[in-house]
Amino acid sequence: MYKVTVIGSGNWGSVAAKLIASNTIKLPSFHDEVRMWVFEEKLPSGEKLTDVINKTNENVKYLPGVKLGKNVVADPDLVNAVKDANMLVFVTPHQFMEGICKRLAGKIRADAEGISLIKGMEVKKEGPSMISTLITKQLGINCSVLMGANIANEIAMEKFSEATVGYNQNKSAADRWVQLFCTPYFNVTSVEDVEGVELCGTLKNVVAIAAGFVDGLEMGNNTKAAIMRIGLKEMMAFSKMWFPSVKDSTFFESCGVADLITTCMGGRNRKVADAYARNGGKRSFEELEAEMLQGQKLQGVLTAQEVHEVLSDRGWLHIFPLFSAVHAISIGHLPPSAIVKISEEKPRHVQLLSSL
Ligand SMILES: NC(=O)c1ccc[n+]([C@@H]2O[C@H](COP(=O)([O-])OP(=O)(O)OC[C@H]3O[C@@H](n4cnc5c(N)ncnc54)[C@H](O)[C@@H]3O)[C@@H](O)[C@H]2O)c1
Ligand SMILES: O=P(O)(O)OC[C@H](O)CO
User: Complex ipTM, two decimals?
Assistant: First the structure.
């Protein structure tokens, strides 16, 4: 029997728990109960978020108005939440994963399998390191990934979308994850390319920030399409430079071009970057994030910084003018309008990218 714990309970974490719970209750090889670890916090009412989720079956802070399923049990104790589980679903903002893995090391079942829904990476001396790698190294478990064109609120309303599971070798684990997540409105397929899938999900957040700048400057659809096209080229080039095994075909799955489109049209990174540009860069991302997202977290600004670190370390910044501009603008070194200045570098940029 398989027992599932979801580690994380933000906007996407809550929707993931709902999707999974709708399946575990029907599939005989899974325990009905889905445990969801909650980073505990007090609500303005003075009540604890975990208590309210368990009382109302709703994550009133991160996914208000949506029932999670009676078989979802919120648990504020991380170690207790994972102790019986052999299928671990990781879905927190990426900056918290190092600490979470440290707390989980030695505390999980020996036969556990993991899947990461987290869009983000870490910076190591040798270059970018993916969150699935962090999980595998720190916890000693196999870790697949699930990414896609997945704005959580739309999936919570059961509107049709697709996602991609990325796996390395372990196809039977991938099949089990597909079975666990698939519903009539959430169509999941798998590809043997963990890094490719995870890099798509991670890097599209940087392009989404660029798309938000374009919207905030009211530059129109053609400019936004150009930014998305250049962004996709940089995503592919960056991925293949660091991970040569990444497959071109992965970029045409839901995790690739489809996620890039949805995130540049309707995501949180786009929304906050739009506000940043409208304010002429005078209000920081931190301030806008806190005001506009009410506890939800942006990943794009931090990822742009991480991308900048690994590229500058290698002297490769000039090959990635869009990624570089997003970072420089988001820390206030360039004005938002600099996002289209990359076109001036076009001949060199195109030449460099096509030589990769
Ligand atoms: N929301 C979406 O539409 C969506 C869709 C696909 C993927 N994702 C990805 O899923 C991941 C999780 O995003 P989300 O939308 O579920 O979260 P979120 O941004 O909605 O919420 C932030 C979460 O972080 C928690 N948190 C705050 N401080 C913490 C700490 N110190 N330690 C641990 N947790 C802390 C909060 O309790 C909350 O659960 C991210 O990588 C995101 O890119 C999100
Ligand atoms: O709202 P964002 O910008 O974090 O994007 C959400 C998802 O990643 C879209 O697939």
Answer: 0.99
Sorted by where each begins, the domain ranges of the chain are 2-192, 196-354
Classify domain 2-192 by CATH number: 3.40.50.720
Of the pLDDT bands very low, low, confident and very high (cuts 50, 70, 90), residue 237 is very high
| Residues noted as catalytic | 204
Q: Is CATH 1.10.1040.10 the classification given to domain 196-354? A: yes
Most ligand 1 atoms within 8 A of CB, residue of 7, 9, 12 to mutate: 12
- What global pTM score does this model have? 0.97
> Any residues with Cβ below 6 Å from ligand 1, and which?
8-13, 39, 62, 91-94, 96, 117-120, 150-152, 296-297, 299
Strand partners, 162: 187
92 sits in which H/E element: none
Amino acid type, 199: L
Torsion sign across C-alpha atoms 334, 299, 267, 146? positive
